[in-house]
Write a structure and sequence with these properties.
This protein is α/β, with parallel strands linked by helices. The chain has 10 helices and 15 strands. The structure holds NADP nicotinamide-adenine-dinucleotide phosphate and ligand F7E. NADP nicotinamide-adenine-dinucleotide phosphate is lined by residues 9-16, 33, 35, 60-62, 82-86, 101, 127, 129, 180, 182-183, 189.
Length: 369
Amino acid sequence: MNKNIALITGVTGQDGSYLSEFLLAKGYEVHGIIRRSSVDYRERIAHLEGQPNFHLHYADMTDSMSLVKLVGKVQPTEIYNLAAQSHVQVSFDAPEFTADVDATGVLRVLEAVRTNHLEKTCRIYQASTSELYGKVEEVPQNEKTPFHPYSPYAVAKLYGFWIIKEYREAYDMFCCSGILFNHESERRGETFVTRKITLAAARIAAGLQDCLYLGNLDSLRDWGYAKDYVECMWLILQHETPEDFVIATGVQHSVREFTDLAFRYAGIKLEFKGEGLHETGVCVDGSAELIGKTLVRVSEDFYRPTDVVNLWGDPTKAKAELGWNPQSTSFEDLVRIMVTHDMAKVKADKVAGEVRTNLAEYLEKGIVK
Ligand code: NAP
Ligand code: F7E
């Protein structure tokens, strides 16, 4: 039997780490691309390093030669192209870099496969996004909904989507997109809105932060659990024919609703008052020190030049053709999982901080040498 060999770009990211675990459990040989950094920041995959079927290689999405050489060396049967500058707000500040990685990077992966003559044996998954629907033209969005990208990130991802489709048709390659709606987890980057909220709720409950500053509270998202979504990436590549799929829960909530629920799980009941930049979230129930305090405020700093405000996916096709269950983790469970994790993390960080402080004191007093 031929061995399944997966190459994952973006292996150090939220999805890359869950996908690695998923594929290793299925018996795959997993290879991941990492890039050189002055600090070693591989927290999400540290527990996988050293496993015999897990291999890391230096390469970069902006460096064709590194990709061509690596694809030739690894001879993958499946490539999951997850690497991206994935933060929408950052794409307004670094649009050219975003295009280089998120648009041209996809082309580089496709050409690395062709250069190594693997186009008939290697299947390619492209991490497309609900941001393609942007300034939405219908609600909810499905595979037939027209795209209207509304940020430099989304425009770059639009190129990625179309170049994948083009190579599928021009060269008969098995390459396809998962159009994934927002998916979150306890491993989500700390500047995305959900993780920013769950960490702040935990820190405020522990008395380590005074207030959470957010942007548009009215923005609506279809939030799922990342662990459930990586299964879909794999299912898309196991499908008989190469096709694109919308992956979403089919349930929509606002940033305000996410905030309200996260704080409730942290033991704080909020009441929202006012509008726009003057809206606040005040503590009306919880610990005595917090009652009456304004714990959430709106700041213009987190508004975007153009914002996508009404994402809501229709996962009917994925359900019917891939047999995927879009609701295995509910919105309530997702928020609870993230808050529970962050409350434990804040507690552990606090203890570690106290240990460090005590140690510093002991060192100063000459108690510990
Ligand atoms: P993430 O946590 O931000 O991870 C991004 C990954 O890309 C990291 O491993 C990062 O490496 C890597 N990367 C960035 N630039 C690179 C470069 N020049 N060369 C090599 N690697 C590079 O993102 P995620 O949430 O896991 O998302 C995975 C993919 O799905 C992304 O393409 C994202 O755009 C897309 N997507 C995400 C969502 C979502 O809700 N999470 C929804 C739809 C689509 P470092 O660790 O070195 O920075
Ligand atoms: O913003 C609003 C913000 O940054 C969600 C990426 O994974 O999903 C992600 O992109 C919404 C936006 O994610 C804050 O304006 C309010 O409307 O968590 P986010 P995103 O932009 O949806 C898609 C599918 C991807 O493909 C991307 O890679 O929340 N919002 N206040 C805020 N957002 C942030 N970050 N911070 C705030 O303070």
